[in-house]
Each structure stands twice: as structure tokens, then as C-alpha cells.
Write a structure and sequence with these properties.
- The protein is α/β, with parallel strands linked by helices.
- The chain has six helices and 17 strands.
- A nine-stranded mixed beta sheet has the order 14-15-16-13-9-12-11-10-17. An eight-stranded mixed beta sheet has the order 2-3-4-1-5-8-7-6, with helices on one face.
- Bound molecules: fe (ii) ion.
- The site of fe (ii) ion has 6 residues, from strand 9, strand 13 and strand 16.
- Its EC number is 1.13.11.2.
- It catalyses: catechol + O2 = (2Z,4E)-2-hydroxy-6-oxohexa-2,4-dienoate + H(+).
- This is Metapyrocatechase.
Length: about 300
Amino acid sequence: MPVNKIGFVHIRVTDMDEAVEHYSNTLGQEIVSREGGKVYLKAWDEFDHHSVVLEEGGVGLVKIGYKVDTVDELATYEKRAQSFGCTTTRVSNGENLAVGDGVAITLPSGQRVELYTEIEYLGTQTGTLNPDPWPRDMRGAGVHRLDHALISADDPAMVERFFGEVLGFRISERLITDPGNPVLIGTWMFCGQKAHDIAVVKGPDNKLHHFAYWLEDWSQILHAGDVFAMDDVSVDVGPTRHGITRGKTIYFFDPSGNRNEVFTGGYITGSDFPTITWTADQLAKGIIYISREVNERFTTVFT
Ligand SMILES: [Fe+2]
């Protein structure tokens, strides 16, 4: 069994006030708590306590949390990670606000992943009894939920093997040099039925390329783009479509320089989904399908 889902992304920001303005008012997440110099946010369609943690002091990824269904599975993942050669440590209840006991794993590429089974339940803004389709006081882009993260690794094949063998992820799409000499450049992996819950691309170890929020459809992507213009958000790419995952997207930066994405579309996967392969000669089309051009910033800026 794979892990349940991506639960949270914890990042550093250079200026907390600017970051809160971006994640709360521009993206529309709700501030759940401010504690210990950190700000915890959730999106309106999420029922767990938080999905994004902001910590002042720099830029980049602190850790990614994945929710696991049972304590037994947590112990299994811990053992498998150790057998894989990764460093693991136990995380105590409350070490992460509102999150129960867990296991921290340092990936072969250096990023920290934390697994946990319990997190405080807050419920969605629309509730579970005769819910409205969206909340009347939705702000900004009105992001629904955290969707996925893309990290970089000097050896993406090793990290792909980790997510597959240790955490039970499957591969939806792979980007390779060419079929005659198949060196892995990027991999898109899922733990449920989404197109991806994690992606790994060739790049520096221990870095984040972006994390993404789900929106309902293409018109909501365009609406988000309008909000980004109103709020002078620095847009990296889009609105456009990916070849890989078939998603519709805008990439943009928070005020600290962490890259975010709003994402929709794609397809459903599942345990019988056959892996799709892209070759390096089609890389630009795979990433940005319509313009078939990838700007230099997109392939060189990691945080
Ligand atoms: Fe993405």
C-alpha cells in the first residue's frame, strides 16, 4: 500500500508579512494558526489542520509531509527506508503543530520527508452536510487544496526507486534521454489516483522546484492569472498546458522566490496505470505543450 496523500509543505520565507499576504489573500488560504514564529494555512477544500507552513528566515523547502493510513504502515515505511540506506528519526506528537507521532526520512537527495498518521481535523469551510460547492467568502485565486510537489535530485533514478520501493508510489510518466540510452531526467509519481503526488527532476540535491495547488478547471486558472496581475505576482510560465500529466497550469513565485503552481486537469491513474514515456528531444513539449519553449529560469531556479 502506498502512503495516503501529500499532507503539507513547510517552506522558508524571507518576509513573513509579505508571505502571509501572498498565501492568504492572493492564493486564498486561511490562516489557521500563528505559533513559534510559524504561520499555518489551509485551503478551503481541505479538512486537515494545515497544508502549508511558513517559517521566516531564508527561502526554500524545510520538509514535505505525507499522511499515512495506519501506525503499522508507518513502521513498515520506516523499516524500508532504513533498509534503503536512508537516515530516519522519530517525530513526537506535537513537534509539528497539530500533527501526531511520525517518522522523518532524509531522501537520498537530501530533502526531508515526514510521515504521520494523525493530524487535527478541522473540516472544510463548506462542511459535510448538504455542502455548497464553494465558500461565499473565498479570497483571491481560491485554491482548493495542495496537490503535489516537484523536487530536484542529482540522481533522480535513485529517488524514483525510493518513492517506489519504500513508500509504494507508482510512476505515471518518465522523461528519459532516449530509448536507446534511457537515462532518467524526470519522473512523475502518484500514491492515489492523481496524475502525480510527487515529481523529481534532475537538478541540485536538496532543493524544491515548486509546489502546486489544485483549482477546479481552466477558467479558474485564468481567474487565478487575473488575480496574480492585480496583486503584481511574479509569473514564471503560463497560463498554458503541460504535455506531461496533461495538466493546465500557471507557475509563479511567492514574494520570497519560492515557485508555486496552480494546476488542474490531467487524468486519473490507479494501480493498473501504464507508465507514459517522454524523450528528451520532446522535453519542451512535455513541459510546456503549447509554446514548446521552456524559459531558462524554469530549468535553473530551485529553492
Ligand atoms: Fe507541478
